[in-house]
Amino acid sequence: MNKKPKICIGLSGGVDSSVAALLLKEQGCDVFALFMQNWHDTTGTLHGECEWEEDRAVAEMVARKVGIPFHFVDLSEVYRQRVVDYMFSEYEKGRTPNPDVLCNREIKFDAFWEAARTLGADFVATGHYCRKDSFTAPDGSTIYRILAGSDPNKDQSYFLCQLSQEQLSHALFPIGDLTKPEVRRIAREADLPSAEKKDSQGICFVGKVDLPVFLQQKIKPCEGDIVEIPRSFYEGRPAPQTLEEMAEPIRYRREDGKVIGRHIGAQYYTIGQRKGLGIGGHAESCFLIANDMDNNLIFVGEGQDHPGLYRKALYIRPEEIHWIRPDLALPVSGELHCQVRIRYRQPLQEATLVHRPDGLYIRFNEPQRGITPGQFAVWYATDGEMLGSGVIDR
């Protein structure tokens, strides 16, 4: 008699992973829960007490309710090394990282998977809203695919954009075919303790944070000028013609605009940011359009349609190009029409990947607002399959 594969569900205390655990149990799977602690220090958090302790208590109650074994693992040190230190390093360079993408690649489907394996797991399941399938290639190998979740309002495939074929081979996403309201309904009907728990916000496994306060643990504040760039700056400027020109952001100087305020450090702000700038006296809100780390300047423009917010192309360095489907990797000099998003929940945008010897360029059909270095550009086939991703360099 064949032994059932053993499945580890990453139980966070939230409703999504709780329902994923319930579904696996109802399907007759040999399943156990593993809760991971990824953070100790609460400096900069918006809660006076450790949020993870409450999450763990709920997760334990869910495991008892579902009727599965519960285990705990402390991954805070590896999380600090692989995710938090990376975050600090990127912000110091004036870039905006996505810790949730890194957490999935480095923690959930790597360090957490290794912990699950020591407990006998053959697969690790999570509560992500995405789908996975597979097919057999002509050479007999198995090719795994990540597809967008069935709920367009909750599709979380973006956060899995850095996973490899090896990682996908042991990954399961039990709620990928469900919508959020369906998940809530299942949780209520099963009387799960997490049924009414609000979705988590903030940095993955750290909780709600005041980001500047959090960053100030390692990055010292340094006051500098806020420079407003007027729309007249763009009048008469030649439009970029080549792909390289389209992907190159404008390098502003202090004399290109006027100083309208002070900031606490250019590294604390991100492209497209509106809140927290402390700028008044304008008919419309001001948005950050660029930062100059060398001179500790940030540049802003008035109005969400300010020309400085838009660009038609971006660039990814060769070492940052990642193909979930290596069999579909674009050769140098190749081009591929696909759909792209440059941030979570952004509607997919029509674009063309252009692979040059110096890296990958993405040319959009329409100019994109707030292209942000450090974030991930993710490309999809027209059927919703996620094909690959890369860190935006510029």
How does this model look, in words?
The chain is an alpha/beta fold. The protein folds into 2 domains: 209 residues, Rossmann fold (3-Layer(aba) Sandwich), CATH 3.40.50.620; 175 residues, Translation factors (Elongation Factor Tu (Ef-tu), domain 3, Beta Barrel), CATH 2.40.30. It contains 8 helices and 18 strands. The strands form 3 sheets. Strands 5, 6, 12, 13, 14, 15, 16, 17 and 18 form a 9-stranded antiparallel β-sheet that branches. It has a 5-stranded parallel β-sheet with strand order 3-2-1-4-7, sandwiched between helices. A 4-stranded mixed β-sheet has the order 9-8-11-10, with no helix packed on it. Helix 1 runs parallel beside helix 2, helix 1 packs across helix 6 and helix 3 packs antiparallel against helix 4. It is globular. The protein starts with 5 loop residues before the first strand and ends with a strand.
Which key features would you list for this structure?
5-stranded parallel sheet; Elongation Factor Tu (Ef-tu), domain 3; single chain; Rossmann fold; 2 domains; alpha/beta; 8 helices; 394 residues; 9-stranded antiparallel sheet
